[in-house]
Amino acid sequence: MELLGKIPSIPCCYLIELSRPLGNEKHKARYYLGSCANLKKRFQQHLQGSGSAFTRAAIERGIEFKIVYVWKTSSKKEARQLEIQLKRYKNHARLLRRVQNAKTNSIQTR
Q1: What is the CATH number of the domain that holds 15?
Q2: Residue 22 sits in which domain range?
Q3: Calpha distance 74→91 (Å, rounded)
Q4: Which of 1, 14, 35, 91 lies at a 20 to 30 A Cα distance from 99?
Q5: Is the pTM of this model over 0.90?
């Protein structure tokens, strides 16, 4: 949990990447896109298994995850609007490739 000290308490949209895909042969997912008013608090919820069904399933299966990109916003409302816009890409791996040219600090869990 010491890694939580590196996570800022800001409103934002964020992208989580799993260390390996979650799902079955027909459908596999490796990314989770979310938004929040306080990233530090929200990521702590994900780590505890109360953040989303997706990260809870990852924890139950022993799959590690990390934040790979953060889009800072000025408010929770702006973060939610950005999340909706980014989810239109449907392919979060492609979205990540588009933003990888920017400098990022990923935060590993567990």
Answers
A1: 3.40.1440
A2: 2-108
A3: 25
A4: 1
A5: no
